[in-house]
Design brief:
Elements (H helix, E strand, L loop, with lengths): L4 H27 L3 E12 L19 E12 L3 E9 L4 E3 L3 E14 L7 E24 L2 E24 L2 E12 L9 E13 L4
Antiparallel strand pairs: 1-2, 1-9, 2-3, 3-5, 4-5, 5-6, 6-7, 7-8, 8-9
């Protein structure tokens, strides 16, 4: 586990700016939105095994575990294109190399495409950027300007590609099988910079009055 407070601070600042920009786009987009969606699900992760890790990566794999997921989007361009965001985190703490309790968190901001005119079944595709934040827990608290925590974080930028199939089961409620690929920059704490999240979400579509 590496510690570099300057790098972490720089990552946090850039992610804060990214989050602020995303929020602004959501506010502007919602004013002209033709559709909005929210969803919650439980996914899992799969990644290369520890045995396949190269000398640059840790033998710890991200495979396994339950990941609660929140997601949302607004569609505002020609009833098909919009912006979306996801956050997924490991529900229970894992054991990092049998030493440290840890929990990875993934979040991303994307461009999204959902075709219009489909009532019962609708595919969706999205691509964007985000971050992986790995929390390593300790048995003492460290206090700073923002409060006290019992963990340190290692943050990495990532690229995200995802897709799903919305199956509208009743009215505006849908079930969505989904799969997501994360390409994490310098993900040296784990066996690879590539990991896949897949599972099922349940969501609701908000549409303007006809």
């Amino acid at each position: 586990m590496r510690s570099n407070s300057k790098k972490v601070g720089g990552v946090v600042k850039r992610l804060t700016l990214l989050g602020a920009l995303y929020t602004l786009l959501v506010v502007v987009g919602t004013a002209h939105a033709q559709q909005g969606d929210i969803a919650f699900g439980v996914d899992t992760m799969t990644a290369p095994s520890a045995s396949s890790a190269s000398g640059n990566y840790s033998p710890q794999s991200l495979t396994g575990g339950a990941y609660p997921v929140f997601s949302g989007d607004v569609i505002f361009y020609k009833h098909q294109f919009g912006i979306s965001g996801d956050v997924a985190w490991k529900a229970s703490r894992g054991s990092y190399l049998g030493i440290y309790p840890y929990r990875p968190i993934f979040y991303d901001f994307n461009a999204i495409w959902v075709p219009s005119g489909l009532k019962r079944v609708a595919p969706q595709l999205e691509a964007g950027i985000g971050a992986e934040s790995i929390r390593f827990y300790q048995n003492f608290f460290v206090c700073g300007f923002t409060g006290c925590t019992n963990y340190s974080s290692s943050n990495h930028f990532l690229g995200h590609f995802g897709g799903g199939l919305r199956l509208y089961v009743k009215g505006n409620f849908f079930v969505r099988p989904e799969a997501h690929l994360y390409l994490v920059h310098n993900n040296l704490e784990f066996s690879s910079g590539r990991t896949t999240r897949f599972g099922v979400s349940i969501g609701y579509t908000f549409r303007p009055p006809q």
